[in-house]
């Protein structure tokens, strides 16, 4: 056997191509084995370039492919899939008296992740040829260094080791490690002898089984080993006991540039600025690599780094986590909806999240996705504009006539041919294909195949497939799901639907969409492992940060570190060495290198970058980092300008003169004229969300409705103690919740309901009952009223009105406890000094007096009004906040003042000469405003 050690500045592929033997154009007598698959594409191209015509290529395999081929020439046992292995391990786990993790992993979905780690550990023990006896002796050797719980894990590992491999032997199966070990023991019996020349190239980290294979190959004259020089390579050569012939290249160092940026997107933008001039000059080819140690940077690269490239100008070869794909988010929306369902009732917010997902709302109807989008946005509007239920059934959605009527109203004229039946059937069809199948699940196979059906439906019946990366993701998902369905896990069954979704999630977390790009044209976007054994002229390395390169902080093993060292298994130090080796070979093999990293208070550059930076500084004779590293900074304008004033046009002034003004609109203008402009002149409103739970505004609606219903049955007669019925108000609140939210709420909704019930019961018992010795009659409950006021029109809804001892009080219920937000400080008001009007908390009660006086033909001097602050801690007379505080009546002077201010406010609103200006008190008003994004005042805090 011949052994060679190549300088990283030499092309491993070219060196091998020059060594191949051939008979004319026939290279098939050569076997070349690399650690991975990608160098094969480059070697085939190199051979083709040398022959210049048709030829039979060499046999090129990855190490795994070589072992599989060699094994299958001497042993017929099929390979066990990891999913089947987990199923077998779970059965063994269930048979144990002392299980790993006790009761924590008693069900399959919780055991699954542990099962994968356990299988990986067992396979590592086999490939390193560690016997059960050595495992058994670990605890005795390291009683002080290994904690008791870890010793228990090691004991469990021995139990699994013996039973698992005995089981697969009985069933005539093999695993990856069993195959490696078998080939190492029986290499001479395999068909490997049939090749004229055998080359193993580019290896670094070797298992004991691989070392055994290489030692046996040492006696074969037709075998060559090629290594690339780099950190720690001498240790590998020493372990193999070989003395390689060195092949050197001309001395030299790559030109290295360093780019520091505040975030990932900064790296990508800087990369785009570098690549664009090269592309414009036609200098982009397969000898240029953009290396992505973190797959999360792939999409920023495609969106911003290569936005103008067509598909023939670049090639991707990287594994992208399925858990980061839009498809995973789509299935997660489905999971949350189904697992949150009870008795067929689903949460409306979760239903809308699923229905409005781009994959759902873009399902075709008669060849167009527009109709489905209109339908589901109409569904969203329908449940947002009504006091909708929190839970609902699919049948109720499909059969709701009012919903279908709204859908028909939303359809444009060119879709007028669609009937109500068509719309209803389309919704039902989508439900049948996407949601209904998952309410009944038989087992893991049934669940997996239903997900396959869902994804196939979306792929075939929606616009999803138009996205260039959808099909690779979808194919990877379906492949993973079919593996689950065909595995021994398929027959497993869960009592709860959540078990299936948990199993799916945990399995998909381990899977990647393999962008296995094969075209050797254009710029190469590669993962760090995909660069192994390939030399590039120019390298752009992104994400060169310590938490990514090397990414070795996670010890994904059940065997504790101390035990791994005693057993001779790889540790984080070995993975650090592996990363350092491939990084060094990649960088030193290039002519031009640009390294990008994020630098902030939370992140720092990789230790590998620090090493190269130090070497660069040594060659340049300067240790000043700012000369070697370019810092990318964003231009940030930290000025917070005031919102612009909006002038009134004649049209807007005319429009405003025709409005009917409510108290809330006047309060809005008083607080911020600009907010009034957005809300009432432009009619902008925050988008209402349906079914998102009970909000503060919902509490107010429930309280007002309950009190209106309660007192509505007691109008026109004096109240007595028999009218105070806490049970009745409690049941009324419960009934409102059932009507509005589809039943008695659970969780936080239930607590809110109980709180409202108690507050209203306290209102009746602790506030109203002590007043009953007075003669008290409820005369209004939830009354809509209108009234003219000089040249203007007012409108409003009065919560209640009551007569006490012959005087009328207008009541307004507030669920707040903050009196200062509504109080009017009359002693500070001057109608002719605009700046004093900030002493008005709310114009609500003055407006209500005007409305009531007009509607019921009663002099305003006979009317008082008050807020009842139901949010206060103690329910007594302190909850009252009267408009006027004079005992037994109203203040005529205060009434004149407030009505004069009201008139001036209305004139100001409609005066074209007075623009809409921003609030004078940003700290008070901006944090609670819906229009801060328009004004640019999101920065204001209380």
Would you kindly provide a brief summary of this structure?
The chain is α/β, with parallel strands linked by helices and 942 residues long. It folds into six domains: 2-76 and 180-247, P-loop containing nucleotide triphosphate hydrolases (Rossmann fold, 3-Layer(aba) Sandwich); 82-173; 263-323 and 517-631, P-loop containing nucleotide triphosphate hydrolases (Rossmann fold, 3-Layer(aba) Sandwich), CATH 3.40.50.300; 325-493; 637-690 and 915-942, no CATH class; 694-911, no CATH class.
Question: What this model shows, in words?
Answer:
Helices cover 46% and strands 13% of the residues. The protein has 942 residues and is an alpha/beta fold. The chain folds into six domains: 2-76 and 180-247, Rossmann fold; 82-173; 263-323 and 517-631, Rossmann fold; 325-493; 637-690 and 915-942, no CATH class; 694-911, no CATH class. The strands form four sheets. The chain has an eight-stranded mixed β-sheet. Helix 3 (63-72) crosses helix 8 and helix 20 packs antiparallel against helix 21. The longest helix has 23 residues, at 148-170. The chain is elongated, with a radius of gyration of 38 Å. The N and C termini lie far apart (78 Å).
């Amino acid at each position: 056997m011949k052994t060679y050690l190549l300088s990283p500045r030499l092309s491993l592929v070219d060196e091998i191509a020059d060594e191949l033997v051939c008979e004319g154009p026939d290279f098939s007598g050569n076997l070349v084995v690399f650690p991975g698959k990608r160098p094969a594409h480059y070697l085939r191209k190199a051979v083709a370039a040398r022959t210049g015509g048709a030829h039979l290529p060499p046999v090129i395999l990855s190490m795994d492919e070589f072992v599989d081929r060699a094994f299958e020439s001497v042993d017929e046992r099929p390979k066990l899939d990891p999913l089947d292995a987990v199923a077998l391990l779970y059965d063994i786990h269930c048979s144990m008296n002392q299980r790993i993790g006790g009761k924590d992993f008693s069900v399959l979905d919780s055991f699954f992740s542990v099962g994968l780690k356990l299988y990986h550990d067992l396979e590592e023990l086999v490939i390193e040829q560690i016997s059960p006896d050595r495992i058994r002796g670990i605890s005795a050797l390291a009683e002080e260094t290994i904690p008791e719980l870890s010793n228990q894990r090691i004991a469990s590992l021995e139990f699994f080791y013996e039973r698992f491999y005995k089981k697969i032997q009985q069933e005539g199966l093999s695993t990856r490690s069993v195959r490696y070990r078998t080939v190492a023991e029986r290499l001479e019996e395999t068909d490997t002898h049939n090749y004229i020349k055998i080359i193993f190239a580019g290896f670094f980290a070797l298992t004991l089984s691989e070392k055994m294979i290489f030692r046996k190959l040492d006696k074969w004259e037709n075998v060559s080993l090629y290594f690339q020089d780099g950190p720690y390579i001498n240790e590998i050569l020493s372990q193999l006991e070989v003395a390689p012939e060195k092949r050197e290249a001309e001395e030299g160092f790559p030109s290295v540039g360093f780019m520091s940026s505040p975030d990932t997107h900064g790296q990508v933008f800087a990369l785009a600025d570098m690549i664009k001039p090269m592309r414009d000059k036609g200098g982009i080819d397969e000898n240029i690599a953009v290396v992505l140690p973190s797959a999360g940077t792939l999409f920023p690269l495609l969106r911003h780094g290569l936005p103008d490239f067509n598909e023939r100008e670049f090639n991707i070869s990287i594994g992208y986590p399925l858990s980061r794909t839009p498809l995973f988010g789509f299935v997660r929306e489905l999971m949350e909806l189904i697992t949150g369902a009870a008795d067929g009732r689903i949460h409306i917010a979760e239903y809308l999240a699923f229905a409005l997902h781009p994959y759902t709302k873009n399902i075709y109807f008669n060849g167009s996705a527009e109709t489905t989008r209109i339908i589901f946005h109409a569904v969203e509007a329908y449940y947002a504009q009504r006091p909708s239920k929190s839970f609902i059934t699919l049948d109720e959605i499909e059969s709701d006539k009012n919903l279908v009527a709204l859908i028909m109203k939303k359809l444009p004229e060119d879709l007028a041919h669609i009937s109500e039946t068509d719309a209803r059937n389309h919704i039902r069809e989508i439900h049948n294909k996407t949601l209904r199948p998952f309410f009944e699940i038989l087992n893991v196979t049934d669940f997996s195949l239903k997900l396959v059906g869902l994804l196939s439906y979306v792929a075939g019946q929606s616009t999803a497939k138009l996205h260039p990366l959808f099909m690779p993701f979808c194919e990877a998902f379906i492949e993973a799901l079919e593996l689950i369905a065909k595995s021994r896990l398929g027959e497993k069954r869960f009592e709860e639907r959540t078990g299936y979704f948990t199993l799916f999630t945990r399995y998909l977390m381990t899977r990647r969409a393999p962008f296995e790009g094969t075209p050797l044209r254009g710029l190469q976007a590669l993962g760090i492992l995909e660069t192994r054994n390939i030399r590039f002229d120019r390298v752009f390395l992104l994400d060169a940060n310590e938490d990514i390169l090397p990414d070795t902080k996670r010890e994904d093993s059940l065997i504790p570190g101390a035990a791994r060292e005693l057993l001779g298994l790889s540790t984080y130090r070995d993975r650090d060495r592996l990363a350092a080796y491939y990084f060094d070979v990649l960088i030193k093999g290039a002519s031009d290198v640009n390294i990008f990293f994020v630098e902030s208070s939370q992140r720092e550059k990789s230790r590998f970058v620090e090493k190269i930076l130090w070497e660069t500084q040594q060659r340049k004779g300067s240790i000043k980092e700012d000369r070697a590293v370019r810092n990318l900074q964003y231009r940030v304008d930290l000025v917070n300008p005031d919102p612009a004033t909006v002038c009134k046009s004649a049209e807007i002034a005319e429009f405003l003169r025709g409005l009917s003004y409510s108290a809330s609109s006047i309060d809005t203008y008083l607080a911020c004229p600009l907010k009034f402009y957005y809300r009432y002149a432009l009619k902008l409103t925050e988008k209402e969300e349906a079914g998102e739970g009970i909000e503060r505004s919902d509490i107010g609606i429930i309280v007002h409705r309950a009190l209106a219903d309660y007192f509505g049955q007691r109008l026109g007669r004096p109240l007595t103690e028999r009218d105070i019925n806490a049970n009745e108000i409690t049941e009324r609140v419960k009934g409102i919740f059932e009507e509005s939210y589809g039943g008695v709420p659970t969780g936080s909704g239930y607590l809110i309901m109980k709180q409202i019930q108690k507050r209203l019961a306290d209102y009746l018992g602790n506030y109203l009952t002590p007043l009953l010795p007075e003669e008290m009659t409820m005369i209004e409950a939830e009354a809509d009223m209108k009234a003219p006021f000089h040249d203007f029109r007012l409108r409003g809804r009065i919560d209640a009105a009551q007569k006490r001892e012959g005087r009328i009080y207008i009541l307004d219920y507030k669920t707040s406890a903050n009196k200062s937000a509504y109080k009017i400080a009359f002693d500070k008001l001057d109608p002719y000094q605009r700046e004093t009007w900030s002493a008005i908390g709310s114009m609500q009660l003055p407006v209500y007096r005007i409305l009531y006086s007009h509607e019921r033909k009663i002099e305003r001097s006979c009317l008082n009004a008050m807020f009842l602050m139901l949010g206060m801690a103690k329910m007594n007379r302190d909850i009252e906040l009267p408009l006027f505080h004079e005992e037994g009546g109203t203040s005529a002077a205060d009434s004149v003042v407030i009505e004069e201010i009201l008139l001036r406010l209305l004139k100001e609103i409609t005066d074209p000469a007075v623009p809409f200006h921003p609030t004078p008190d940003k700290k008070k008003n901006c944090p609670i405003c819906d229009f801060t994004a328009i004004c640019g005042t999101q920065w204001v805090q209380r």
